[in-house]
Amino acid sequence: MKPILESINVAVNTSIRIKTYTNDDHCESAGWHIHPEYELVYVKNGSGVLNISSKKRMYSDGILVFLAGSIPHADFGNHDYPDNLEVVIQFKKDFLEEKLKMFPELGKVKELIKKSKQVLIFDPGLHKALSHDFKKFVYLDNQGKLINLLSILDRISREDSYETLFDTFTTDSFKSNDVKRLEEIFEYVNLNYAKDLAIGEISSKLGLTPNSFCRFFKKMTQSTFTNFVNEFRINKALEFFNESNASIAEVMFRCGFNDPSYFSRQFKKYQGTSPNSYLKAKYRGLLI
């Protein structure tokens, strides 16, 4: 079965994506999927199965696993216990190549990240020792999250307490031309969502006709390109609302919408409420 390419939306003004999930607010299943981002996953407790590429591995009391991008895998979490917690940390290749390279002191961390191509599964002792650090993410701001992540990477880079799922692994073998093409589309949207995203322009960049592009995108994502872009923009709108006191009009334009009525309809479609109601709840302190 071919893996579906998952679009990872790294938030505004951040270089990493960190999501925490409980049994009440669990990670929505992505099924068998692939994405170019590196992924560090902490599961507090419970049992499950790691399905990564051609390998399967059982775990019985939570798991801490680190894998490079472009390795097909299924979801890692479970719902055995009501107090379970899953923390999913994802970052792009440029986090390593453009940001971490500026600090020669982080040599061990950079080596650890390179080893993640073999998929690293850390032993139970280290998993337990780092539980407090992973639980902290939910309370931290963006700066705190980055510092906490670097602290975790520093700790695990100094340990040999892990097993590798693969002796060697060539990630490009899983990146078909279709997956590479879809990655180009996602990156194009990520860089240009505030502009007018004309299907004619992006399809031309990929060497497709507009009709072929639309069929290709629907086949690969089970969504139309328009719906994908609208949902992406609404997620950006949430980030802008939550990080500033920007007005609805300001956020609308920053996200690439030009029609207030259309923006309001799309916001309600994906968030279940209007932008105005969302902001009223925010200022009343009703949003978590």
UniProtKB/TrEMBL annotation:
InterPro entries the record matches: Homeodomain-like_sf (IPR009057), HTH_AraC (IPR018060), RmlC-like_jellyroll (IPR014710), RmlC_Cupin_sf (IPR011051), Tscrpt_reg_AraC-type_HTH (IPR020449)
All copies of domain HTH araC/xylS-type, residue ranges: 183-281
Signal sequence region: none
The organism of origin for this protein: Flagellimonas aequoris
Source superkingdom: Bacteria
Protein name (database record): Helix-turn-helix domain-containing protein
The keyword Transcription regulation belongs to this UniProt entry's keyword annotation: yes
GO terms for MF: DNA-binding transcription factor activity; sequence-specific DNA binding
Keyword Transcription: yes
Keywords of this entry: DNA-binding, Transcription, Transcription regulation
